[in-house]
């Protein structure tokens, strides 16, 4: 595989992937086509079904991306059968677009679409893991996951990440109350949740709940090292991770 030359304009190169396993919508969609601008990292999300064929993928791509940004010079994707079908290859040859194949973490992709997928999946649900260390390394105690519903789906990403912390503390209050806890999150700005100058009423309520019942600190941990938003207990009960 040869690295791409630096793009001269936005949407000249793009990465593409399909995220599956999302909560089903009334219209039957439970997957999302994710297309990321290789230069600016801007992303588009198009709801779809998992078992879409190449023809439907092309139609979705053209209606979502091409009508806004034109035809790209290159589309980068991992080796997925959807993109290797004869119809798909013929369609992009017709548009003078070459389909480049790469693994998710190849340098010319830099995991852009994968990281976008992780963020988008957090947009639908939250999760956590409670772990402890009793001298034999960190061991899991319990797992937690929750789909977001109603107004929660409209929260900004900062609040959705904070909501994961609140849900975890409420779920495992019997383990965490009265003990020192460290919260590991993959959303960097949440490090400053307690000290940010402008708080919404919702954030004030959350912080009041945490400050009233728990002793905790918030630490940043990159997503590729953190399976879920995490609370780490350096004492007896070690973490939510």
Structural class: alpha/beta
CATH class of the largest domain reads: Alpha Beta
Total strand segments: 11
| CATH level-two architecture of the largest domain | 2-Layer Sandwich
State the share of residues found in helices, binned by percent.
Answer: 25-40%
**Beta-strand percentage range:** 25-35%
How far from one another are the termini? 36 Å
Largest sheet: 6 strands, mixed
Any idea how many domains? 2
SSE run: EEEHEHEHEEHHEHEEE
How many alpha or pi helices?
A: 6
Q: Looking at CATH, which topology of the largest domain would you report?
A: Nucleotidyltransferase, domain 5
Contiguous runs where pLDDT drops below 50 for at least 5 residues: 227-241
User: What is the CA-atom radius of gyration, in angstroms?
Assistant: 21 Å
- 3D shape: elongated
Mean pLDDT: 73
Entry keywords:
241 residues; Nucleotidyltransferase, domain 5; 6-stranded mixed beta sheet; 5-stranded mixed beta sheet; 6 helices; 28% helix; 27% strand; disordered C terminus
